[in-house]
Predict the 3D structure of the following.
Amino acid sequence: MTSRDAPYLLRQPAPEPVGRLALRSLAWSLVVSTCVAGGVALISLLTSLDQFDVLWSLLVGARAGLLALAPAFLGRLFFLSRSVADRGFAWIGLLATFFGLGILLVFFAQLGFEAIAWFRVSPELIEEHNRMLRETGKNYIEQEKAAFFQQELPRAIADEERKLKKRFADDPAILARKLEEARQEIRQEFEEALPERMETWAKNAQEKQIEKEKGIRTDTSPGALLENFLTQGPGDVGQDAGIFPALLGSLWMAIITICLAVPIGVGAAVYLEEYKQGGWLGHIIQVNINNLAGVPSVVYGILGGFVFVEMIFKPMEQNQAAALAELALNPAALTFWDRVLLWLPTISARNVLGGGMTLALLTLPVIIVSAQEAIRAVPPSIRQGAYALGATRWQVIWHQVLPLARPGIMTGTILAVARAIGEAAPLILFGALLLVQQNPSLFSQFTVMPMQIFGWADRPGKIWHHNAGMASILLLIVLLGLNAVAIVLRNRAQRKMRW
């Protein structure tokens, strides 16, 4: 290149960066593919196809849109890239992005179809159940009348025949006459008692009808369906089942995990980074923490079941039962520990507190490692300046290091809590239940949303599968809500930072 070529080169427009071109290509591909897929899905819905046919049509439309635009953009990327490595990296990155977005699209589309089917099927099942409840009184009278003549009457005749056969066994002629007379008398008695029985049955049927009508749901609007789903507990009727006990159980798990794992995890990170930076003990602790972060969650369930259930809460449950028995026999013999146990609510060996502590152990390594990285990212000049002004080590940590490391610590907390809420395997081994009717408390039995989803998905009947889909959507909303709150707090802490 000579100096004569310089003005020409300066006049040439700068080539568009590969990253910007890839993002613009991806955006246009998504727009076109979404429009095509939405059109195909709308046509499929209007033609009343099955949800799986609609999902397949959605995927076909998305693929058509991507195939229509991808060659042009990939070709443009190929010829404008500066080297073969850049071209290969851009191509692989674009394919990976499309693949991830496709899987995400399939996931959300399936959840959306489950929600639509739930809103469509539930009112029909509710009306059918209401009709069955309204016919309870009529069916009750008919069933009682049938039982009166088909069960009680033959039983009374059989009892009388047995007595007559013992009495007139030696005279068959008299026995036959007596048996016929007894049958007629018993039938006549039953016919005379029928009006009185009918009055009793009618009164019982009315009481049962009033009781059953309390379960009739007249409002089947989407808002009423959601309210029932969010405020009721699980049951044997799919369209009346709710998620409220499992939702409370998941919130309990999140609160206990945060309250236990965050202080302990941050304290351990501060010790390892500020107090025990070197030495063989710190190295051993650090290696074990890193290894614990990769331990399967099932192992934590086994650990929690042994430590918290067998060693702590099961003896407490047995001692509380023994203290209640001692209270009835000899109250003066109660010890201080017995009175403490009696002051507590009824303790279950596999309770909410033990489950929360199990999940706290599960998330503790993640919080420790993320808090260490956040503390390590604080510039040494901050510490040196504080020491130069005469601050002690604890004052430096409390007033300078931890406030600056707070955003990173909260990021690790977000990831840990999101993992804890979505876990089911450790709680299954811990002993959580699949079906809980009552609202959970700190020492009661419990269930969580992942286990409730698993229980519903395993039951026969489409309504249970739709319930599992709605519970999955609710679980995602809870996760996103908790993450949103943590992200807002983290961003607010970042805005307050002054370097």
Q: What stands out?
A: The longest helix spans residues 84-134. Residues 1-16, 45-49 have pLDDT under 50 and may be disordered. Residues 136-220 form one domain. DSSP finds 17 helices and no strands in the chain.
